[in-house]
Structures are given as C-alpha cells and as structure tokens.
Amino acid sequence: MSGELVPDRGELRASHEDRDQVVELLRVAAGDGRLTAEELDERLDVALTARTYGELEALLTDLPAAGPALAVGVAPVAPKDLSRIQVDSASAQRDGAWVVPQRMEIESKSGSVKLDFTSAVITLPTLEISVSVRSGSVTLVVPPDVYVDVDDVTVSSGSVRNRAQLDPSSPARLRVHVTGKVHSGSVTVRPPKPPRRSFWQWLLRRPRPMTALAR
Do 64 and 87 share a domain, yes or no? Predict the structure, then answer.
C-alpha cells in the first residue's frame, strides 16, 4: 500500500537457515580462539531463539571474520586464505555449512580436531592442510567427491589412515593435500557414517536411508 512503512532490515524475521548460519560462524570463532566456551554457550542460546536479523547480527559485531558486513541472509562468507586450529587437551570441530579455506594449519598436542566436509561450503578446488600432531588426533570426514592425499605426512610412532574412497563416477569436487608430522597421535580420513534409522524404521525393519552428498 502507498505510504506503508517499510521495516528496517534488522527488524525483518530470520529463518532457520539464517540461525544455522550464525550458529556455525560462532562455532568457527570459538574454534579459532575468539570466544570462550562460556561466551559460545551464551551466544548459541541467543542465536537459536533469535527472531530477527538484528538479533543475529548483534552476535557477530565483534568477530573479524563476520561482523555487520556479513549481512545475514544476504551474502555468503568468502573463504579465508588461511585458517589455524590449535588445541592442547581440548577439542575443535568444523561441521555443517562451514566455509572451506584455501589453507589450514592444525596443531594438536593431546586434543582432537575433526573436519567434516559432508555439508561444507566448498568454493575452491584445492585445500592445503599442514598438521602437527603429538599425542592428539586429526580426523577428516569426507564424502565420495572429496579426494584426500596423506602420502606426504611423516609418522614417528603414530598412525595415518585413509579409509575414504573417491567415487570414480564423478570428478573430485575438492582435492585435499595433507602434509606435516605425526608423533604418537593419529591422522584419520574416513567417509561419513550412515544416518541412523528412526525408531519407526527400526520397528518396521526398513533399511538405513542413503547418505546425502553435499551439494
């Protein structure tokens, strides 16, 4: 109608996808050491119940990787040139719709790091990962269209295992080259676990649903 007031962008209602996007950004920021565990919990509570774009954007204003320029619900996040993950006895995880950077440096002393590429946002053809694992672990979860090369990882008394297989029927969507050193820890590459059957599927003895590949 003519003369009708147009609400400010910050007052527009956010969708489930918008909330999920902010949740993932907060988890990445915590993994990068920008948020403490307490701060992450507080912001996740707000993000999951946020009603408007303004409430979501307020959670990102002090994060260099996001900030107001993110424009929740409008523009995707550009991949970083370099992403660093360092854990002592804690754990860090990248899953969901996280944005795959060009390079990653991962240091794990006695903690664990997990990179799940199943639903990751992949905009580059290659990813270089440099690892330094003492008694910790690094796990890469990859769908059939993500190829991982771990032949250049040096092993002391630990282990490097690649249990994933590239689907020969389709070209690789992403090629990951892993280098670095493993002392007494482990680097493992594996495919995603099949989805668990629901209670009714189990009751009716239906087969497990097929694993959906990330687009």
Answer: no
Q: What sections of the chain are H helices per DSSP?
A: 16-31, 37-49, 53-58, 199-203
Separation CA 125–CA 142 (nearest Å):
14
Say if CB 200 and CB 209 are below 8 A apart. Answer: no
Side by side, which strands form the sheet with 186-190?
91-94, 112-116, 137-141, 186-190, 159-162
92 and 113 together in one domain: yes
Q: Are 65 and 137 members of one domain?
A: no
Residue 6 tokens, joined: 């147009």
From the number of C-beta atoms within 10 Å of its C-beta (0-12, 13-18, 19+), residue 164 rates as buried
- What 3-state class would DSSP assign to 44? helix
Tell me the longest C-alpha to C-alpha distance in the chain.
Answer: 74
Q: Identify the pLDDT of residue 110.
A: 92
Is residue 84 located within the same domain as residue 70?
Answer: no
Q: CA of 123: how far to CAs of 15, 57, 78, 139, 174, in Å?
A: 24, 24, 9, 21, 9
pTM (predicted TM-score): 0.60
Nearest to residue 123, comparing CAs of 81, 186, 73? 81
Are 40 and 97 in the same domain? no
Among 166, 177, 87, which residue's Cα sits nearest to residue 133?
Answer: 87
- Tens digit of each residue's pLDDT (9 = 90 or more) over 23-69: 888 888 887 788 888 899 999 999 999 998 889 888 988 886 444 43
N-terminal to C-terminal alpha carbon distance within the chain = 40
